[in-house]
Amino acid sequence: MTKLPSLARARWLKEPSLQRVFALVAGAGGEARVAGGAVRNALQGEAIGDIDIATTLAPQNVMTAFKAAGISVHPTGIEHGTVTAVVDHKPYEITTLRRDVVTDGRRAVVAFTDDWKADALRRDFTINALYCDAAGKIHDYAGGYADILRRRIIFVGAPAARIREDYLRILRFFRFLAAYEKMTPDRAGLAACVRLKKGLLGLSAERIAREMFKLLVGPKAVPVLKLMAKHKVLKNILEHTQDFRVIQRLPADPLLRAFALAKKPEGLREAWRLSNNQARRIEALLQGTVLTPKLRENEQQKLLYAMGAEAWRDSVHLAWARSRAPLTDRAWERMLKLPGRWVVPSFPISGRDLLAQGFPSGPDLGRELKRLEDYCIASDFTSTREELLESTRGN
Asked: What are the strands, taking DSSP E only, across the chain?
């Protein structure tokens, strides 16, 4: 049996806010342990992100205990046993131990329990079925630490059974492969994901997008995408290109990489239920503005003015990735940094200014504003407010 290490000296575990969570739960007659990702990453020497807590206390009892201590607590997913407490300005998701009652491949009906092993055995992968108590002791009910040492992503129990409970676990399998450079796929787990890949078709767009965005920024994103394409898993998520070279050359921006991956990026907004800001970025990229370092500086400035800084950077990244230029190319790098060295000017004239000059309101007002703006751009933004107003008076 693999000897378990201790996290007693971990700085994040000693944080007063986290220790206060442990103490409040214990004071209410329960036990709390850090669960899943934070423990998994700590044991691999990876950075710690969110710290999720599992507890034997029922959700209402957690809320009562924290409110009594004057701590803000919110029922963020109480039907599944989760509340979020904000301790010393740090949010902690606290979830009651659970066991599955009914699963249909998309969601589960759960019952609360105080059995740590039962909670562990309903989790997706062994490396996520790890817990750490307030003193730093590791509790491992599924052999997760041994699988960390073996660099394996392995389902808890029978892979097919875990997947049929929630088909999103197929994407999570590949996402964790992409996240950890030294992790390799378990043969049985991979085979089950491939065999049951059609289950992905029944998942909501939002759930797919969340997992894919995480996968796309992983250090091994491109090799994993190739693996998914090889086994025809990827086509059940979106119609995709095979130009993985471009994705490899893009920065770890999930939206840029999704745009490059999709054969029809114009359909991403609906397919993945993108936010308004994400949709705007997609629309800007679809404009297809041809960018190259061969453009003169003033030509670049005019395009930047028209596009805005965010769309400029997105378009430069994409054009650079599609080019044959090395990623150390100074001309492309200088182009990318244009918004940092050239402040995009504000057009100094408004409709109110024209009205004050006696220009009549109506459609002609908008056309005149556009004419003046074009005039300003053509002058390389050297036209002053006074010159522009004088131009109006002369018409």
From this structure: 32-35, 52-55, 72-77, 82-87, 90-96, 98-103, 108-112, 130-132, 138-140, 152-153, 184-185
The residue among 276, 103, 119, 282 whose CA lies nearest residue 199 is 103
Do 142 and 129 contact (CB within 8 A), yes or no? yes
What would the pLDDT profile of 263-305 be if each residue is shown by its tens digit? Answer: 999 999 999 999 999 999 999 999 988 899 999 999 999 999 9
Q: What is the pLDDT of residues 353-384, one digit of tens each?
A: 888 878 888 888 888 888 888 887 888 888 88
**CA of residue 120 relative to chain centroid, distance:** 26
pLDDT of residue 390: 80
What count of other Cβ atoms lies within 10 Å of the Cβ of residue 299? Answer: 12
Residue recorded with tokens 């996290």: 7
Residue ranges of domains in the chain, CATH in brackets? 1-150 (3.30.460.10), 287-341 (no CATH), 351-393 (no CATH)
> Average pLDDT in the 244-268 region?
96
**Backbone φ and ψ of 260, nearest 5°:** -70, -30
Phi, psi of 264 (to 5 degrees): -125, 75
- pLDDT of 395 > 60? The answer is no
Quick one: which of 94, 98, 124 has its CA closest to 24? 94
Strand partners, 244: none
pLDDT digits over 115-126, tens only?
Answer: 999 999 999 999
Looking at this protein, which amino acid is placed at residue 71? I
In terms of Cα–Cα distance, which of 47, 58, 52 is closest to 10? 47
Q: What is the pTM of this model?
A: 0.87
The strands making up 82-87's β-sheet, listed across from edge to edge, are 72-77, 82-87, 90-96, 52-55, 32-35, 130-132, 138-140
Residues facing 90 on adjacent strands: 87
Cα-Cα-Cα-Cα torsion 240, 245, 248, 253, nearest 10 degrees, comes to -50
For residues 189 and 161, what is the distance between their CA atoms, to the nearest angstrom? 11
33-64 confidence digits (pLDDT tens): 999 899 999 999 999 988 999 999 999 999 99
pLDDT, the chain, mean: 92
Strand partners, 105: 166
Identify the pLDDT of residue 394: 45
